[in-house]
Amino acid sequence: MSFTRFHDDPCRVEKQVQEATDTGRYMLNVPGNGSKPCFMEDPHIRMQKWGANLQTNSINLESDLLGLTRKVTRDAEDVNDYRHNAVKSKRVEYPSIAPITEQPRATHPAWTVRDLEQTKWSILPMDPQENVNIPFKNNLSTRILEKDYFIPVAPCINNN
Length: 160
Fold this sequence. Notes:
The chain has helices at 10-28, 58-65, 77-80, 104-107, 142-148; strands at residues 39-40, 96-97. It starts with 9 loop residues before the first helix and ends in a 12-residue tail after the last helix. The protein is elongated and about 130 Å long. A two-stranded parallel ribbon has the order 1-2. The chain is mainly α.
């Protein structure tokens, strides 16, 4: 006997699983930044994922910052002293890249160019006033024109 349920078709099930897991794959399957990603000094480029703020031993460092490495007490200063229980970690040094985009408002402000004379004495290829006037009549009230040009004609009655 053949299996005819459309819901349990293997291709359909595979497609449903793919659609359900694509959002997670976007975060998991993103290619990395490399072993030494560069720090972008450009403020207009948004840092994603790492942000050049990584330290060695980051998991233990985060656990220490959350307070998971010691018991919660108020009175034991020796136990809660962060200097004695600090996690050993170092900053990772990243190479730095100069800004890619230029900031013309900061480097060339408008007030430095305002007083300069704009000299453009080249001859234009076309007359800029050539198409100023419309070559036909416009904004005419055709109703009034029809009244003005109307000539009454009496009907011709023949008595034949």
